[in-house]
Structures are given as C-alpha cells and as structure tokens.
Write a structure and sequence with these properties.
Strand content: under 5%
Largest sheet: none
Helix content: over 70%
Order of helices and strands: HHHHH
Radius of gyration: 18 Å
Structural class: mainly alpha
Shape: elongated
Number of strands: 0
Number of helices: 5
Oligomer: single chain
C-alpha cells in the first residue's frame, strides 16, 4: 500500500510542476509582450526616454523571471532572448534606428519559447 501512496504523491508533484511551468511561461510571455508593445508605441511617438525606461523595466522583469524559466526552458532559446532583451535599453538610450526591429525580434523569440512550451498535441508527440 505504501508504494501506491508514493506513486500517487509523485504523480501529484509532477502534475503540480507541470501546472506551475505552464502558468509561469504564459504569464512571463504576456507581461513581456506588454512591455514590448508599450516600447514600440513610445518609439513610434519618438519618445526615446520613455522607451528606454520601459526597456529597463522589461530587463528588470526578465532578470527576476529568468531564474524560474531556466529550470523549465531550453537554455539556448532562453539565452538568445536574454541577450536581445538586455540590449534594448542601450539601443533606446542611443536612439538606434534598429531598436524597433530588435523589439520585434524579442517578441518573436518570446512567442517561439511560449509555443514550444505549451502543452499541445504536436509538442507532446
């Protein structure tokens, strides 16, 4: 009977970790996209100071969440996204012409991570 309880406890822990992973990835994706959308709007208005501030907020948010994400996501895609996000504030500070392209690249990298981590039939098989 003890084996059954151990198996059920292990199953409950595994399901809980899966739910935590799905929730964390979805929330980070939504929040980071909100920062990126805000920065794109500010750049469209040529408000580079606000865009720089938004990019710094995104970077701070990403640094907090990256610890948890590193345990759940392929490190290659996570590292690529981290490099892109870390460069955004400097690009906004320098009023770089390619910052909007980098914001879109960051958005696409986040979307790729989110799509790869979601529980879908294609991802399972």
């Amino acid at each position: 009977m003890k084996r059954l309880y151990i198996a059920l406890a292990f199953l409950a822990i595994a399901v809980s970790l899966c739910i935590f992973e799905q929730y964390t990835v979805k929330e980070v994706y939504k929040e980071a996209n909100a920062y990126i959308d805000k920065a794109i709007d500010e750049i469209g208005k040529n408000d580079y100071n606000s865009a720089e501030s938004t990019c710094k907020e995104l970077n701070d948010y990403w640094d907090k969440k990256q610890k948890y994400m590193a345990a759940m996501i392929d490190h290659g895609s996570l590292d690529d996204t981290s490099v892109t996000i870390n460069n955004l504030a400097d690009m906004a500070e320098n009023e770089s012409d390619s910052i909007e392209e980098e914001l879109i690249t960051a958005r696409n990298q986040l979307k790729g991570m989110y799509d790869n981590q979601r529980i879908t039939f294609g991802n399972i098989f």
